[in-house]
């Protein structure tokens, strides 16, 4: 992970798999085509947290996608505990109390990313959850709050990346899930873009799960996505 211009570092592969053996097998198949891996609920609750340290020791970057959101004390102490895991990125939901608490618990070397509005939400889902704002406005509001509080980066859809960049400036990371190569199934994602369009929109990293984990040749899919991120 020495050359920041290497487009492989822009791809984060979501290890949404049932267990550590499956995750390790996928990482082996992908080989040097990817350098950053995300461990979320599914793998994390199936022994994946211990994997983070091993991957970091191999020189890979780890994104712990815990999406923390709780009372401040619990978030602060949770982030403090995760700071020793070897992870580079950790997610929290973009609520002001939660974001402030996460920064209090953040250890050296850990970047806290604020999840603005999940990419599986559209305006109707936000309204159903009680929000009066359309998704794009809610993302903008949360991005501004995250920047003011001092978060290291934001998670949003690539559809909002250009406007989020104008709000948060060049110094914060923009990380976008909901990425689908042309023709790939969206599944439960509602705010979707292709890797090339996301790159044009100014993202720092894309997160890709099922298009890679479900592929017959995950290395080839990862390489094709990286080529679009160059
Ligand atoms: O925080 C995330 O990574 C995340 C935020 C978000 O808004 N949407 C979203 O899909 N994600 C994660 O990104 C990954 C996307 O996976 P695929 O839809 O399979 O590519 C999953 O691991 C999600 O948990």
TrEMBL record:
<feature type="binding site">
    <location>
        <position position="209"/>
    </location>
    <ligand>
        <name>substrate</name>
    </ligand>
</feature>
<dbReference type="InterPro" id="IPR047596">
    <property type="entry name" value="OMPdecase_bac"/>
</dbReference>
<feature type="domain" description="Orotidine 5'-phosphate decarboxylase">
    <location>
        <begin position="10"/>
        <end position="225"/>
    </location>
</feature>
<comment type="function">
    <text>Catalyzes the decarboxylation of orotidine 5'-monophosphate (OMP) to uridine 5'-monophosphate (UMP).</text>
</comment>
<dbReference type="Pfam" id="PF00215">
    <property type="entry name" value="OMPdecase"/>
</dbReference>
<comment type="subunit">
    <text>Homodimer.</text>
</comment>
<keyword id="KW-0210">Decarboxylase</keyword>
<feature type="binding site">
    <location>
        <position position="119"/>
    </location>
    <ligand>
        <name>substrate</name>
    </ligand>
</feature>
<dbReference type="InterPro" id="IPR014732">
    <property type="entry name" value="OMPdecase"/>
</dbReference>
<dbReference type="InterPro" id="IPR013785">
    <property type="entry name" value="Aldolase_TIM"/>
</dbReference>
<feature type="active site" description="Proton donor">
    <location>
        <position position="67"/>
    </location>
</feature>
<protein>
    <recommendedName>
        <fullName>Orotidine 5'-phosphate decarboxylase</fullName>
        <ecNumber>4.1.1.23</ecNumber>
    </recommendedName>
</protein>
<keyword id="KW-0456">Lyase</keyword>
<feature type="binding site">
    <location>
        <position position="189"/>
    </location>
    <ligand>
        <name>substrate</name>
    </ligand>
</feature>
<dbReference type="InterPro" id="IPR011060">
    <property type="entry name" value="RibuloseP-bd_barrel"/>
</dbReference>
<dbReference type="InterPro" id="IPR001754">
    <property type="entry name" value="OMPdeCOase_dom"/>
</dbReference>
<dbReference type="InterPro" id="IPR018089">
    <property type="entry name" value="OMPdecase_AS"/>
</dbReference>
<feature type="binding site">
    <location>
        <position position="180"/>
    </location>
    <ligand>
        <name>substrate</name>
    </ligand>
</feature>
<feature type="binding site">
    <location>
        <position position="38"/>
    </location>
    <ligand>
        <name>substrate</name>
    </ligand>
</feature>
<feature type="binding site">
    <location>
        <begin position="65"/>
        <end position="74"/>
    </location>
    <ligand>
        <name>substrate</name>
    </ligand>
</feature>
<comment type="similarity">
    <text>Belongs to the OMP decarboxylase family. Type 1 subfamily.</text>
</comment>
<keyword id="KW-0665">Pyrimidine biosynthesis</keyword>
<feature type="binding site">
    <location>
        <position position="16"/>
    </location>
    <ligand>
        <name>substrate</name>
    </ligand>
</feature>
<dbReference type="GO" id="GO:0004590">
    <property type="term" value="F:orotidine-5'-phosphate decarboxylase activity"/>
</dbReference>
<comment type="pathway">
    <text>Pyrimidine metabolism; UMP biosynthesis via de novo pathway; UMP from orotate: step 2/2.</text>
</comment>
<feature type="binding site">
    <location>
        <position position="210"/>
    </location>
    <ligand>
        <name>substrate</name>
    </ligand>
</feature>
């Amino acid at each position: 992970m020495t050359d920041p211009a290497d487009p492989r570092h822009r791809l984060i592969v979501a290890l949404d798999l049932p267990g550590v053996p499956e995750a390790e097998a996928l990482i082996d198949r992908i080989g040097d085509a990817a350098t950053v891996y995300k461990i979320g609920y599914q793998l994390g609750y199936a022994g994946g947290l211990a994997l983070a340290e091993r991957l970091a020791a191999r020189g890979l970057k780890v994104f712990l996608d815990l999406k923390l959101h709780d009372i401040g004390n619990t978030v602060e102490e949770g982030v403090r505990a995760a700071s020793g895991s070897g992870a580079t990125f950790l997610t929290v939901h973009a609520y002001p109390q939660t974001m402030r608490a996460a920064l209090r618990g953040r250890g050296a070397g850990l970047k806290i990313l604020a999840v603005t509005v999940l990419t599986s939400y559209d305006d109707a889902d936000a309204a159903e959850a009680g929000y009066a704002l359309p998704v794009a406005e809610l993302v903008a509001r949360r991005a501004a709050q995250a920047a003011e509080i001092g978060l290291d980066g934001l998670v949003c859809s690539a559809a909002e990346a250009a406007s989020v960049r104008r709000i948060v400036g060049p110094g914060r990371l923009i990380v976008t899930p909901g990425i689908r190569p042309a023709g790939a199934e969206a599944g439960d994602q509602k705010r979707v873009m292709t890797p090339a369009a996301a790159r044009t929109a100014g993202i720092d990293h894309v997160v890709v799960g099922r298009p890679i984990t479900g592929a017959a040749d995950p290395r080839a899919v990862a390489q094709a996505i990286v080529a679009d991120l160059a």
